[in-house]
Design a protein that fits this description.
By secondary structure, the chain is mainly α. It is built from four helices and no strands.
Length: 137
């Protein structure tokens, strides 16, 4: 059982890092483009990867919850809150992009910047720091 928990924790760490890399790619794509059509195409190219890692993160957290008899604590709450933040931001930027709104580039740029910050904080302080002991027990 402990090996399964360790494997899921490592997958979760990898997924948070990969989501951070996907957000960095999206940030760079939006930093150097001005045309709305090009931005929309680039956004649509990054989003499947982004959603895939969001789904993997949610699956890992649910597996860790099930390994711990569904005892919900602060570590799980923080991961869920970050996941909901990333998902709602992605949905809102998709809606802005579909309408070809002027706010699309600005909002999505800051959304990716926020996602990078949140993923980095979760990785630095959460998964490998304080929450690491919570997920193991």
């Amino acid at each position: 059982m402990q090996e399964s928990v360790y494997l899921v924790q490592n997958i979760l760490v990898f997924s948070v890092i990969a989501l951070n890399i996907a957000a960095c790619c999206g940030l760079m794509l939006f930093a150097f483009a001005d045309d709305k059509e090009i931005l929309w195409k680039r956004f649509r190219a990054v989003m499947p990867i982004y959603y895939m890692f969001l789904a993997i993160i949610m699956l890992c957290v649910l597996l860790l919850l099930s390994f711990g008899q569904f005892q919900f604590d602060i570590a799980h709450f923080v991961i869920f809150a970050a996941w909901i933040y990333a998902l709602t931001g992605a949905i809102f930027s998709y809606k802005l992009g579909k309408r070809r709104s002027e706010k699309f580039k600005i909002f999505t740029f800051y959304k990716y910047l926020g996602d990078i910050t949140v993923c980095s904080l979760i990785y630095i302080f959460g998964i490998e720091g304080f929450f690491h002991a919570v997920f193991i027990s």
